[in-house]
Structures are given as C-alpha cells and as structure tokens.
C-alpha cells in the first residue's frame, strides 16, 4: 500500500519546486536545483522510498515541503475536526437510514415504501458538496442566516460550532443513509419471512412489536457491516464537503496538499486514511462476532 | 425455376427468422418496462443524457465557451435559459455540452475499470492458487482507500486531462469489478458444460474467454450500470476540486467550483442547474442499475 502511494506521487509531472517557483514568478535554475537537492527529490525513487519507510518506523512523519514544519504538527490539530464530522455524519445516517429502512420493509411495495426508496436513491445521487451548497443557499435565502466563514471551536461558541458542523454532517449523512436504508430493508425483509416471526405473529403479538423486537434484532447485524464499510465512503464524501464548508479538517488539507505536491503530507495522510478505514472494518468484524453468537473467529 | 423457388423459400425462411429476431428484444423491453417502471424511467433518463451528449451542438443556444462581457451573471431569461455565469457564458449550453464530457468520462472509466477488473477477476478465479491469492491482496490494497481519495491522488499524479481523469476514475473500479466477476467465475468454473468443453480438448484461454466469460455477462452489466453513476459523481467531485477535467471543456463539476460558490448568493442559478444535471444523471443510472440487478440476479428477486 505504502509503495503504491509513494510511487504514484513521484510519477506526477511537476513537483513542489516548480509550483513554488511558478507562484514566485521568477526562475533561477541554480536556486531551483539547490532546493531540489535539499528536499532529496533528485535521488532515485527507491532511495526516497526506503528513506521514508525508515522515518516512518522511527515515528517521524517527515517534514512538509511547503510549510517547512513536521507533517505531524500540521495534521494533528485537524484530526478532531474530521473525527467529529465523521461521527456526526454517521449518527445522522443511522438516524435516518434505520427507521426509514424498517418502515420501508414493514410496508413493502406500498406507496410509503416507494417514496422512501426514491428519497434514499435521490440522496445517493446528489453530490454531497452540491447538497451542502444548496443548504447554505436555502438558509441564506430563507432565514437570512449566513454560516460563519471561518472555523469556530467548541469552546469559543458552542451553538455556532454545532450549527457549523451539523450542516455538512447532514449533507454527508443523508447520502450515507441511503445505503443503510437499503441494507436494513433487504435484511429485514429476509428475516420477516422466517418461521419464528410467523410464530410471534401467531401468538398474537402486535405487528410493530414483532418487526422491531423480534425481526430487527436479527436483521441489524448486516446493517452494522454496512456502517463499517460506509466509513470509507464517508471519508470520500468529507473530502469535498470540508472544502465547501471551509472546515479545517484532514480531508480538506489532503486536497490542498495534493494541489501543492506536498509529498510527505499527502503520503502520510493517505496512509492514515487507509489505516483508519482498515481499523474500522476490523472493529466492525470483531463487534459482529461479539454480537452474533453464531459467528466465531477461530 | 427451381433455383429461384429455393431462393424464395430461403428468403421466406430467413424473413421469418428476421421477423422474430427484432420482435424478441422489443417484447423483452416492454416486459421490462411493465415489470420495473422505475428502471424504465432510469433508462430513459440515461437515454436522454446520451441524446443530449450526441446532439449538443444543435441543442445548445450559445457557444459553451464564448464569453460575453455585457451579459455576465444574467438571470434565467429567454436569451439565457438557465442564466449566465460571471464571464457571460450561457449556463444552458454549458450543461448541454457538459453532458458529453460527463458521459465520455463516466462511460470510459466504467468500461475501462470493469474490463480490467473483469479480466483480473476471471484469470484470478480461473487459475486459482497463488495467482488468485496475490491478485486478491493487491486488490485489497486498492480497496482499502476510499474511491474519491484514490481517484484524487491518481488524478494529481497523472495531471489534468480527459484521458487521465478516465484512468484515475477507472482504478478504484477495478477491485470492485474483479470481486464480482471472480465470485461468479468461481461458480461457473464447476459447471458441467465447462467440464464438457475441457473434455473436448479446449485450451485454458479458450475455456476462460469463450466458455466462462460470456456467462458472467449478467453480473457484469449490473456492475457496470451501478458504477456508471458513481463514476459520474467522482468526475464531478474531482472537477469541483480543480483536479478533474481541465478548461476549456465545460464540466458539470467545475461549473460548481470557485466562481460559482463566490457568486452563488446573487446568482443561485450558477449552483442549481449544474447540480441538478449531475443528480439526474446519477439518479437515472442508479434506478437502472437497481432494476437490472433485480432482473438479472435471481437471488435478489423479491427481496430488494
């Protein structure tokens, strides 16, 4: 993984030095060569790669080419923003996705079912960054409220901070809720056809109680997997959403670093994202085994 | 004239075959529309997009890249149906031409990604063993990254141009395609007719491409339709971030970036129309993809 990221980045035409000089507006070939040498960009790719791995192993994430400070120092303050946004979005996705999925399955092929499915498919079809822009526009036009342009921390102004996070979380969460709705609906439909559900109905339990207590508890497990898989999907959504809402998170920073060809920052961020995704999948697998006694890992 | 008679009889015979030939897809189509009205709506939305892309010149009212200093940020009117942007470019004409870019990138990357993934999946499942194992690990690596992040890095690495965007978007599709095709090849490989073909002395490549591959076409179509929507969406996101389709090609995603956000408060049509175009295109392919999956994948029939 690390190798793929590394080689890809080095293949890119144009490096940081070219960009720095282009924006500086003057070109002095001797200066340029000196900077290239200083950053080690003139060494063969594999030497650079081994150098990076050695630094990683010793806990050093390298220095940002652009800001000339350790990459970790730049990334660390951004993590809470992205984590908060990811958690809020997942919460919203679950809060929208699971209940609509349950209703959709319980009222299969009814008007409500079709309406909910179209609602969720629409969420899946709208780019989250566009949805975010439309939400802002609607708020400005309808309520005359202009969201803050700069980041407001929680300690500074809690309500404003929450409002600032809730909008992007809503845009991303609505999109993610579509997958949760589908999964809830299809697993619940499967479970609803099982014998024990019929038994519960035959005993005279009420329709909704059967659906929510008997069926849902067994149908929710695959949904959990989707929430885990969703996480990767969600981070992809955050890349654009953080940019639209101007939130200083990891994803927005990644875009900027990519545009600047700031290799140490990009490769560390991408590696970081990959690790988070893999860990979240592992966590879900473990949770799955813990919740479902039928699944046991040897 | 026995010869002529034979020819005539042959013509009648082939005529009958021909009459039956076109009738069958037609009735299948009607059956599909009746059975899956949502899928039919999706299909017609895609068709509309294809037609728009093909007929972009006659359909547009202005040159999509011509600027007009006197009519900047014009609101929607008879002259500019969807208004104009900060350089006076006609939004409607740009959206019509943008359909072409979106379609080329969407279809191009989907086809490229599914084909590469399909071949990897086919060979991986067909030969199994060590080849399968190593291919799967490489795909695991690719799948560990979110689609957009991978496409973003690829795009930055390759530089902005339409072919590069296609390649960048196709890479994240490869592992998905390979997974689906591999799973279906694994079951097809054990079918009796494969054994029969092998008994007849067919070589590996012939078996794989002639006998196994055509039978994976169902899952393949489902996969490609489902991926088309997300490819269009990723293209829009990349262009929005300034890493996708370069100027001067009108791209829906880029129409939403930079200047659009800046002027959005006074000129909301800058934001509304391109976003609606993206959403409709993706919505159409999602509807069609769902309906095709339900129709072609018997395991899901009735549940989803």
Summarize the structure.
The complex is a heterodimer of chains A (298) and B (304). Chain A has 13 helices and no strands.
Describe the global form of chain A. globular
Give the overall form of chain B: elongated
Multimeric organization: heterodimer
User: How many individual helices of chain A?
Assistant: 13
Q: Provide the succession of SSEs of chain B.
A: HHHHHHHHHHHHH
Main beta sheet of chain A:
none
Unreliable segments of 5+ consecutive residues of chain B: 1-23, 300-304
Helix share bin of chain B: over 70%
- Bin the strand percentage of chain B: under 5%
Using only C-alpha atoms, the radius of gyration of chain B works out to 24 Å
Structure write-up:
The complex is a heterodimer of chains A (298) and B (304). The longest helix of chain A is centred in the last third of the chain and has 38 residues, at 207-244. Chain A has helices at residues 2-11, 16-24, 29-39, 45-57, 71-75, 79-106, 111-125, 128-142, 158-192, 195-202, 207-244, 250-260, 263-291. Chain A has 298 residues and is an all-alpha fold. In chain A, helix 6 packs parallel to helix 9 (158-192) and helix 11 (207-244) runs antiparallel to helix 13. Chain A has 13 helices and no strands. Chain B is mainly α and 304 residues long. Chain B has 13 helices and no strands. Chain B has helices at 2-35, 37-54, 56-59, 91-127, 129-143, 147-158, 162-188, 192-199, 204-212, 217-240, 252-255, 259-263, 269-296.
């Amino acid at each position: 993984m690390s190798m793929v990221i590394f080689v890809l980045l080095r293949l890119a035409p144009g490096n940081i030095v070219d960009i720095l000089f282009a924006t500086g507006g003057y070109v002095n070939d001797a200066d340029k060569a000196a900077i290239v040498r200083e950053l080690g960009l003139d060494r063969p790719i594999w030497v650079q790669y081994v150098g990076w791995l050695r630094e990683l192993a010793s806990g050093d994430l390298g220095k940002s080419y652009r800001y000339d400070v350790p990459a970790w120092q730049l990334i660390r303050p951004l993590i809470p923003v992205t984590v908060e946004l990811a958690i809020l979005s997942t919460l919203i996705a679950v809060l929208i996705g699971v209940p609509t999925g349950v209703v959709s399955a319980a009222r299969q092929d009814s008007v409500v079912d079709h309406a909910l499915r179209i609602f969720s498919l629409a969420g899946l079809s709208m780019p989250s960054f566009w949805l975010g822009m439309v939400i802002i526009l609607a708020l400005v036009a309808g309520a005359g409220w202009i969201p803050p342009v700069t980041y407001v921390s929680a300690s500074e102004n809690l309500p404003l901070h929450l409002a600032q996070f809730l909008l992007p979380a809503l845009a991303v969460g609505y999109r993610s809720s579509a997958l949760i709705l589908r999964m809830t609906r299809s697993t619940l439909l499967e479970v609803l056809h099982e014998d024990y559900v019929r038994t519960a109905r035959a005993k005279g339990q009420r329709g909704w109680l059967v659906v929510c207590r008997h069926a849902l508890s067994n149908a929710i497990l695959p949904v959990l997997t989707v929430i885990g898989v969703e996480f990767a999907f969600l981070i992809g959504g955050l890349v654009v959403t953080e940019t639209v809402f101007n939130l200083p998170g990891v994803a927005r920073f990644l875009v900027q670093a990519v545009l600047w060809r700031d290799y140490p920052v990009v490769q560390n961020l991408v590696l970081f994202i990959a690790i988070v995704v893999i860990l979240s999948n592992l966590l879900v697998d473990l949770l799955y085994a813990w919740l479902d006694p039928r699944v046991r890992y040897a | 004239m026995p010869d002529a008679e034979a020819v005539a009889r042959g013509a009648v015979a082939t005529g009958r075959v021909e009459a039956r030939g076109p009738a069958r897809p037609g009735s299948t189509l009607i059956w599909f529309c009746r059975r899956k009205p949502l899928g039919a709506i999706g299909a017609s939305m895609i068709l509309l997009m294809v037609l728009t892309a093909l007929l972009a010149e006659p359909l547009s009212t202005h040159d999509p890249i011509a600027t007009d200093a006197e009519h900047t940020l014009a609101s929607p009117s008879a002259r500019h149906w969807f208004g104009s942007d900060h350089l006076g470019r006609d939004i409607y004409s740009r959206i019509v031409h943008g359909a072409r870019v979106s379609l080329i990138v969407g279809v191009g990357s989907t086809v490229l990604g599914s084909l590469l993934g399909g071949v990897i999946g086919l060979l991986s499942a067909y030969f199994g063993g060590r080849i399968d194992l190593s291919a799967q690990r490489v795909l695991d690596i690719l799948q560990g990254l979110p689609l957009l992040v991978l496409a973003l890095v690829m795009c930055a690495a390759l530089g902005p141009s339409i072919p590069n965007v296609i390649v960048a978007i196709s890479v994240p599709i490869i592992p998905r395609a390979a997974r689906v095709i591999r799973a279906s090849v694994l079951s097809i490989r054990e079918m009796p007719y494969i054994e029969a073909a092998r008994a007849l002395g067919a070589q590996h490549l012939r078996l794989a491409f002639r006998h196994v591959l055509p039978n994976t076409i169902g899952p393949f179509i489902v996969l490609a339709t489902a991926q088309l929507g997300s490819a269009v969406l990723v293209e829009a996101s990349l262009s929005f971030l300034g890493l996708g389709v370069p100027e001067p090609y009108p791209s829906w995603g880029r129409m939403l970036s930079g200047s659009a956000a800046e002027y959005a408060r006074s000129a909301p049509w800058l934001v509304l129309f391109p976003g609606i175009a993206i959403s409709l295109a993706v919505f159409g392919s999602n509807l069609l993809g769902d309906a095709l999956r339900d129709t072609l994948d018997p395991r899901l029939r009735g549940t989803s």
